[in-house]
Amino acid sequence: MGRSKLRRGGKTGFTLLASEQTGALLTNSLEALQSAGNRVLSNGSGVAVGDYDMTVWWTSFVQFERAQHALQESGWMQIQGCHGRGGSYSHESILRGATFADIDGDGNLDLLVATTGGGVICYSNDGHADFLT
Amino acid sequence: MTAAAGTATRFGSVNAGLADVNGDGALDLYVCNNRTDDIRDRGQVDIQRVNGKLVIPPVFKDRLSIDDKGHFLEYGEPDVLYLNNGKVIHARFLDRWNVSG
């Protein structure tokens, strides 16, 4: 996932970090009426973690069930100054899983977002942490 | 980019994973699909009984089945594996085959 620097001699495993440490103070909310109307939405949505702005720090794309929050108001991504453009897909679909990967081989992490009813949206990272559909 | 990649569908996609599944050095894409809705949210589905046997309407033949105990089963949409042909600026994926979800 990106050009991360791995520490030599590190220990295997994970360390739980508090939200206060990470800044990930997000809640993926789903209104009861939405859930009642389509229980598929209750399956939740995903998070992608990657160094998409090449700061060597992991940054994340956290998504909400509601598409309008997905790119421009999505917590960490907004905090890191990363904005989505040309997001016609993102405003029409309910967003689910997300994955960072360099799918065009330019060295930058691109973003793939699974949607309910729209398949997978591919956002290209232009190298300046702007994601274009 | 989505249009070039060919990954826009009508499916209810839930997640995507990438790996070089065919060993050509390019990342391929596996998309897990569920559905855009659940049949139970429709309120009512008419099932006919023919010669004493419950029969799924043709419109739901790829979505519903009934097991030996009379329980209804709902299937997801097919997952899709896209193989990356790497011939365009933005990676283009080919829908190689579908796997029953």
Descriptive account of the structure:
The complex is a heterodimer of chains A (133) and B (101). Chain A is built from three helices and seven strands, in the order ααββαβββββ. Chain A has helices spanning 19-22, 32-37, 76-79, and strands spanning 47-50, 59-62, 84-85, 94-101, 110-116, 119-125, 131-132. In chain A, strand 4 (94-101) and strand 5 (110-116) form a beta hairpin. The longest helix of chain A has 6 residues, at 32-37. The model of chain A is unreliable at 55-60 and 64-91 (pLDDT under 50). The model of chain B is unreliable at 88-101 (pLDDT under 50). Chain B has one helix spanning 2-5; strands at residues 13-19, 28-33, 48-50, 53-55, 64-66, 72-74, 79-84, 93-99. Chain B contains one helix and eight strands. Chain B has two domains: 1-35 and 76-101, no CATH class; 38-75, no CATH class. Chain A binds chain B through residues 37-40, 43, 46, 89, 96-97, 99, 101-105, 110, 112, 114-124, 132-133, and chain B through 1-2, 4-5, 7-18, 26-27, 29, 31-32, 34-38, 40-41, 84, 86, 89-91.
